[in-house]
Amino acid sequence: MNREQWQPFLKLWSEEWINGHDPERDGPLDDEAVRDGWLGFAPASADEVAAAEARLGRTLPPSLRAFLLTTNGWRDAGNFIYRLAGASELAWLADTDDSSWIDAYSDTEFADEDEDEEPEGEILARSLRLSLDGDAAVMLLDPKDIDERGEWAGYWLASWSGMGPERFDSFYDLMYHQYTRFHRLRQPEGKSGA
Hints:
Blueprint: H1 3-19, H2 31-36, H3 46-56, H4 62-68, E1 74-75, E2 81-84, E3 91-92, H5 100-106, H6 120-126, E4 128-129, E5 131-134, E6 137-146, E7 152-158, E8 166-168, H7 171-186
Antiparallel strand pairs: 1-2, 2-5, 3-4, 4-6, 6-7, 7-8
Helix pairs in contact: 5-6
């Protein structure tokens, strides 16, 4: 997915989210987002993305790179993620205040019973944290699980879900899932395939 594909998708998401906002049920919307009709921010520059890659020691997957070049972060990535990181805010989960997720899912109580699957704690320990703020929920990318396009597997994880990390094939697939989940929960007027 490139910038030309992200822009209309994110613009539609912004319009539907802002139009469907319920001030009695939801937290306040950012004045700038309402004024601009855009849940995102100004695009990251190629230099900012390159600096993030140098700092992280990895080339970011194509869909995340294109996303950052479209918007350097995101507000309200679904109902339970309130803020996604911009290029300078991306960090390995293990190096953040959210590293307790690793310990929680390394505990044998949460470990997968399927011996063929990699332990969840190991996936989390190497993952890139995408979300900065959420309702006991986090979005991640796994730099070890890479497809032929260079996309990293994405994960959605919420402590209250009763499930372990939910896997998606790419950052784009993870974001599209968040968008369709928003449609299922809020049922705004729009074009979602949900």
